[in-house]
Design brief:
methyltransferase; alpha/beta; Rossmann fold; transferase; Methyltransf_16
């Protein structure tokens, strides 16, 4: 994974860095179809008491002159016995890295609030593929009532996400997007879930279990208190083989008809097949949701990055 000069604030997602070990058996998207993936880790809820801070250190991340969050640093080698550039499909999905899209998403949410296009107060929020969890942390600090964090690996939640949430919610308040946020949101329902997108919906916030998708869609549409008001996700659409499962999960968990998705990602992930355009193609073919481009970032340091807003027709 490419690093910026000296001390990077976020990682750039590139083929050469992601799949540096693609010639080894079982590694790399270019060999993805040659061998079946190993079984996914079990879907579980990770309790805050299961957090491990032994490998965690925090440092301040200034997103603007008046917005700062804390970000953690955790060694991929120590947690997964992998080099810091490894991403192994079916075993580790890069959750210990801080990706550029996560920062883009926080900045976009802040801009949406400032322009009075979004309010997070009292909202039920799910962050998919959370890693550091900065967008979800920002939602909590902006008054969300429910913030659930999901990542593929329980180890990411234990060693990084939970310590990062604790560090940001304990620290002295800084100036956030709205002047009304003057103290920590200590009453929010903050929970953590690990597992693959094809199965983790069984543990997340939605009104029914063991029912077919049509029945679930109907209940979500009829019950205004069901599902999440916002789903946040950054850099989750890099792998083309996971896009259908990701979209199906969104439809199972997002409140109907008012739920909204904010997605930050690269326009294309060259060589690995995914990207915003590929995901939006999946969304468009279904015809249930519409998408709007909220922000485009072309700073010359990496591939073009985008933030999209998805909502029901």
């Amino acid at each position: 994974m490419a690093a910026n000069a000296e001390k990077p604030e976020a990682e750039s997602f590139t083929l050469s860095s992601l799949w540096s070990n693609q010639n080894q058996p079982g590694l790399g998207f270019l060999r993805y179809s040659e061998k079946p993936l190993p079984p996914s880790p079990p879907c579980i809820e990770v309790l805050p008491s299961e957090a491990s801070t032994a490998r965690y250190t925090a440092e301040s991340l200034n997103l603007s002159e008046d917005l700062a969050l804390l970000k953690g640093r955790v060694s991929t080698h120590e947690v997964f016995s992998l080099s810091n550039s490894d991403l192994v499909p079916g075993k580790y999905e890069g959750g210990l890295k801080l990706w550029e899209g996560s920062l883009d998403l926080v900045k976009t949410l802040r801009s949406e609030i400032q322009d009075e296009r979004l309010s997070l107060t009292g909202k039920r929020v799910l962050e998919l593929g959370c890693g550091h969890g900065l967008p979800g942390i920002f939602a909590c600090l902006e008054g969300a009532s429910v913030i659930h964090f999901q990542d593929f690996n329980a180890e990411v939640l234990q060693c990084l996400t939970i310590p990062n949430v604790n560090a940001n919610l304990r620290k002295e308040p800084v100036q956030f997007a709205t002047a009304s946020v003057t103290e920590r949101n200590t009453k929010a329902d903050v929970r953590f879930f690990a597992g693959d997108w094809s199965e983790v919906h069984q543990y997340l916030l939605h009104p029914c279990e063991n029912e077919d998708e049509n029945s679930l869609d109907l209940k979500l549409e009829q019950d205004s208190t069901a599902g999440y008001d916002l789903i946040l996700m950054a850099e989750t659409v890099y792998s083309i083989v996971s896009l259908q499962n990701l979209y199906a999960l969104i439809k199972k968990c997002l409140n109907r008809p008012h739920g909204v998705v904010y997605m930050a990602a690269k326009k294309h992930y060259f060589g690995v097949g995914g990207g915003t355009r590929q995901f939006l193609s999946v969304v468009g073919k279904d015809g249930v949701m519409v998408s709007n481009l909220i922000a485009e970032i072309a700073d010359g340091s990496s591939n073009v990055r985008e933030v999209w807003k998805l909502s029901y027709n």
